[in-house]
Every structure is written in C-alpha cells, then in structure tokens.
Amino acid sequence: MVKSILKNITLPPIQCAALGTAAGFYLLINLHIAFLITIVSILLAALCLFRVLSSLDAQSRKLKMMSVCSAALTFGVVLGICAANAGKNEIKFGIPENKITAIEGVLLDDPRILSSGSAMVSVSLRACAGNGIKASSSGEVTVFFQQETAGKLKQFGRGTVVFAEGALRSSDRGFSVSAKSLHILKRANAVERMRTNIRLGLINRFEKEKWGGLALALLLGIRDNLDNEFTAQYRNAGLSYILALSGMHLAIIAAIISFLLKKPLGLNACAVTGAVIITLYCLFVGPMPSLNRSALMYVLGVLAVIGALPKKAMSVLSLSFLIQIIVTPAAGNTLSFILSYTALLGILITGKAFASFFADKVPGFILQPLSLSVGAFLATAGICSFVFGSIAPMGIITGLAIVPLTTVFMIGSLIWLVLDFLSISFLLNFPLFIIYRSMEIIASVAGNIPGISGNSALMLVLSIALSLAIVVFEQRRRSAVLKLEPFL
C-alpha cells in the first residue's frame, strides 16, 4: 500500500531541502511558535515513520529515499526560518529617532543618480548623532542626497565611509535619510577605488552616445543614463526583465567566453576560466540577486561539467537557492531574487513541458524562446500582478524579437568598446543606433497594447492552473507515445 502511494514520488533530497527552505523563509516565518513546533514535529514524525518502515523492508529503496527526503525537508524548514530571521534588517540607532540629525556609515553599493539629479544609496550604519550626542548604530538605511551633493558622491563607490547631515524618515519600506550635506570621511580600499575608476571610465565612454544608456544597463546594470521614456516603454510592454541583469545577459557573456576560449583551452579549462571571469564580472558589477543567482548556477554548472555535481538543472537550481539564501539571507526578500528563481523554476517545469508538447508543431527557432517566455511569464504572473497591479502578456510575443536584438546589441556594444580604445568606434555607431531605435519602436508599439489588470490572487490561481494544464497534457502525450512506441 505504502509502495503504491510512493511509487511516483521521485523528488531528490536537495530539492526537498530547497522546498522546505522556501516554505520556512516565505510562509512559516510569520506563524506563531506553537504552529512552527507542530509543523516541525509532524516532519520529524514522518522521518521516524519512514525510517522504521525502511528498516522493516530492507529491500525498499523508495522507503529509504523517503526517510532521507523527510530529513531534508525538515532541515530545509528550519534553515528557511533561521535565514528569514537572519535576513531581517534590524536597525539600532542608539539614540531616539526624533533626535537624529546626522548619520555615519559605509556605502553598500554604488550611488544611483536619479532622473531629478539627486542620488540615492544604501548605507550600513556605524553611528548616529543629534543634539550633541553621538552613538554607535547598526543596520541599513537608504540615504537620498540633494542634487548639489550628488555630483560629488558620484565620484565615490561602495566601501566609502560618509557622514551625512539630514532628517530621518520612516515609512512602510523602512528608514531613509534626506541628506542636506555630505562629508567623505574615508575612501574605499584600493581595490574598490580601482573598480570605481574603471566603472566611471566606462560610463564616460558610453554616455556620449544616444544608445549608450542602454549599453550601460545591459552590460553593467547601470540604469542612471537610461532614458526614462525608454524604460517606461519596456515596462508597459512587459519587457522590464530585459533591462535587469540576469541569466539572459550572463548567458550571452558566457557564450562569448566559450566562443573565444573553447578551441584553444578545451571544454573543461574553458568552463573553469569562464567561471572565474563571470565571478570577477559579478564582483565588478555589484550585488544584484538575479545576476548572482545566474553566476552561482553557472559555477555549479561548471562543477557538473567536470563531474563534481550531478547534471540536473533542477538540482543545480535548488543548490543555488540554498547557497544564496544562506550566504545572503537579506537578498531573499528582494523582488529581483524572488522573480529570478520563480521565473527559472517556471522555465524548467512549464517551459520544458510546453516545448516538448509543441516540438513537432512549431519551428525550433521560434519554439525555444517562446517556451522560455511562456514558462517565466506563467511562473511570475501572480507576483507581478500583486506588485505592479497588472501583467503584460504581450511581452511573451514581443520578447521573440527583442531578445535576439538585445543579444546582437550587447555583442555590438562590447566590440564598440574595444574599437573605442582604438579610436575607431565610429564604425559601429550607426548600426548600434539602428538596433536601439528598432528595439525602442517595438517596445513602444507593444506598450500601447493594454495589459491585464485584476485581483492578484485570481491571477496566481489562473497562472498555476494553466501551468499545471500544460504539464499534465504533456505527460499524457508522452504516455500515449510510449504506449504506441512498440508498434511504430
């Protein structure tokens, strides 16, 4: 009886651990302690049950696997709850909030220049001051700098210690400081200063071109120079993911590395070299959860290529999630982190089933990107509806044209950068401008097509139902093919 129930359950332990961690991090953290103890007790009871059953039937591999999966699921739930607590931004000012007139802290990322000319940056607090009192502080706050100080701040990057005078504000998003003045107390270390100088040099090279803002966004994740109207067009067309560094952009960079190094170095050496280059690239670009997820999966994929890990995409995704949630638990609460993992999960489950179902009905060059878009869209529809108030299904179709153009544009921008050092980049100015305008026109047309607004819970239910329908239909099709195979 037990064997028949467990017959079709084949979830590996690593995926059980990731599932338990996600449940603990996002769902169970807000439950009362009594409910948490009950849930963990049930999981432990299931673990004991499967261990006993497996000991009674020494030949049952399935029962032994279920005991391991129960242990992994229990471990994941506890890990998720611990990570959620560790990821909370607990701020300790040291003095009453209403008396704070200045803060001291370290820039956690590069200052972002806003369209108004002002700047914003995340700061790790060291001290707060007010009314002649100075106290040690901890936690992270967002600091907004006025336009006259933004230019000065732009020359400094993460790791810089600053002293900002201004007013502390509180909102549902946390604490922020509206700074009136800025003082640089200590510059970042030599490595960070070198990185900042290279970053500023690249900005200066690209910003002189009409299309340069898009190149900076796609290559370095810098969206300060991106035209606001262009950004709005992409958002309305459901193409915002194109502008956020993620797996697509990293795949293009990885493809370039493979093209240049595979023949001279060989597959394994090329893969390892690529992992090193991509790691350095992520350190240069800065902390971006979606990019870090992609880079981590690439490194794990390299380990799979050289035989250190199993070559299963879902297991690699699960391991990546576990590592990232342990190392950077605060990132788990960011929208980019959530969308990145749910989108890839949709691609691996729904997108794969969609591609298999239509394999003989749609040309491959259309089906492959279409299945990726369908899987990612359905997986993130409920989240996007909740956060943005609407979803844009047109992005599925528009992406078929925008993604190839983006790939060509990124490669062209890299070549342009090399030519710019040789003072002959003008050769690519016009082709890149044409590609830029083409992308702008496509996004503008698609953005005028109304999206779907409605109850986010209903959107979530519908997207899950449609995803399940695709997977079920594909499984039935595959079963029918297997039954007919002996007669073919």
User: Count of DSSP helices?
Assistant: 18
Spatial shape = globular
Poorly predicted ranges: 1-9
Largest pleated sheet: 5 strands, mixed, barrel
Helix content: 55-70%
Oligomer: single chain
The Rg value, from CA coordinates, equals 25 Å
Strand order of the largest sheet: 1-3-5-7-6
Structural class of the secondary structure composition? alpha+beta
Q: How many angstroms does the end-to-end distance come to? A: 35 Å
Please tell me the total number of domains.
3
What's the total count of β strands? 9
Compact description:
The chain has 488 residues and is an alpha+beta fold. The chain is built from 18 helices and nine strands.
Tell me the layout of helices and strands.
Elements: H1 2-6, H2 13-28, H3 33-56, H4 61-86, E1 102-107, E2 112-113, E3 119-130, E4 133-136, E5 140-145, H5 147-153, E6 161-171, E7 174-186, H6 190-206, H7 212-220, H8 228-236, H9 240-243, H10 247-265, H11 267-285, H12 289-305, H13 313-327, H14 335-357, H15 364-388, E8 390-391, H16 394-421, H17 426-447, E9 452-453, H18 456-484
Parallel strand pairs: 5-7
Antiparallel strand pairs: 1-3, 1-6, 2-3, 3-4, 3-5, 6-7, 8-9
Helix pairs in contact: 2-4, 2-13, 3-4, 6-7, 8-17, 10-11, 11-12, 12-13, 13-14, 14-15, 14-18, 15-16, 15-18, 16-17
